[in-house]
Please model this.
Amino acid sequence: MADTENQRTYATRRIVRHYAALRELQPAEQTIFNLLRDRLPKMQMLDIGVGGGRTTLHFAPAVASYIGIDSSAKMIAACRQRFADRVFECGDARAMPQFADNSFDFVLFSFNGLDYMPHADRLRVLQEVRRICRPGGYFCFSSHNLQAMEQMFCWKNQLSRNPLTTYSNLVMLLLLRGLNRSISPRRLKAADHAVIRDESHNFRLQTYYVRPQVQIQQLAAFQTSWIYSWQSGLEITDSADASPDLWLYYLCTIAA
Model:
C-alpha cells in the first residue's frame, strides 16, 4: 500500500482547502454525538486525523478538553488558522508517545483516516488507541466496507432503468477494474480485506476496505463494538445488512 502517496495527496493545497471548507457532521457522527451528548462535558477528547477541523467545530465546544492531531502539517496549519483557541499538533496515530496511558475518555478517528495506511500499521493504531483510552472510555472511527465494494465490482449491479445512470456506473466500473487489474470479483468475494485504488480524490488514493465482521475481530482488545450506517446514522445489528454503505462507523467501549 502506497502510504507515502496517500500522505502526499492529503498535503496538496487543493485537498487541504477542500477539507478546511467542510462544516457538517455525517449522519453516523451525529448519531454518536447525540448518544454521548450528556457525557461529553466531562470528557477529555482526542480527534485523530482532524483534517481541516470539520469535527472540531462540533465536538470541541462540547467536551471538557480537546486536542486534534493530523499527520499533515498543512492540515494542522489550516486548523490553527480556523480555530485559534484550540490545541492542534502534528502527530502520527501509529505512535503517540506524547500521550500517556489512559489519557482520553473519547478518541475519534473519522472520515476513514484509518484506511490510508498499511494493514500492519492499522493494527498498530488500534493498539495505540487502546493504550491512551481510559477504562470506560469510547473510540469511534469510520472505515470502508468491502461488502459494498464487492457489489460495485459486479457489472450486473451497475445496470439501471435510466440509460445515463447505467452509462455512468459502467464507466466507473471500467475505471475501477482498469486501475485495479490484480483484483477480480472472485478475489474480492474471498478476501477479508483489500486495498483498492478507488474514486477518492480522482483515483489518487489507495484505500483499505474491510468486511464488518473482520473489523469487529480487529477490535478484540475493546470491550463492546457497535456499527452505524454512514448514510442513515442508524445502528446496524447484522453485518449482512451493511452491504449498501460504502463505509461504516464503529463505536467501541474500553473495558473498565
Observations:
- Residues 3-143+212-253 form a domain with the Rossmann fold fold (CATH 3.40.50.150).
- The beta strands are 44-48, 65-70, 87-90, 104-109, 133-145, 193-197, 206-210, 224-229, 235-236, 247-253.
